[in-house]
Hints:
The chain is α+β, with helices and mostly antiparallel strands.
Amino acid sequence: QTRNLGNLQPRRRKYKKAQKGRVPxxxxxxxxxxxxxxxxxxxxxxxxxxxxxxxxxxxxxxxxRQLKAIKxxxxxxxxxxxxxxxxxxxxxxxxxxxxxxxxWACRVPKDKIIFEMSGPSxxxxxxxxxxxxxxxxxxxxxxxxxxDENTRQPKKKDLPKTCxxxxxxx
Length: 170
C-alpha cells in the first residue's frame, strides 16, 4: 500500500499524546531491520536516534530529486513516524499539563536500515552519492549498504538454533 510522503502520520491512534520514551537498544541478538529486504542499496544508521516525519520527507524528496533521471527507481522507507511529540512554548512556567502536539516521530535503533532503493539503471556511484547526501541530513554516522548474501536476511533454515528445548530432570 502506498502513502503520500507529505502525510507521514498514522491514520488513527488510541491516545493523542505519548510519553517521551527512549530509543531502543537491541539486546539478545535482535536483528529486526538490520538486513536488506527490498532494494539493492541502502543506508544504515550507526547510532540510535529519533527521526521526525519532516526529516524523513526531506530525505525522500532529496533522493527523488537527485535520482530523477533514473527510470523505474523505487525507494523503500523502512521506518514510519508513529509517535506524537508534544512541546510547550518557550518561557512557560512549570506545570499546567503536557504541551500541545507538535510533530510525528519514530525511534530508530542502532544499525537499522532506514532507506532502500533499486532501479534498472541505478549504478553504485549514483546510489552512493545520493545516500551520502541523505546521511548528512540525519545528523548521526551512517553506512552505505549494498545487497549481497551478507546483508540479506538469512533463510529460516540457515539460522543457528538459538535455544535448546527444555528437558525434564530425571
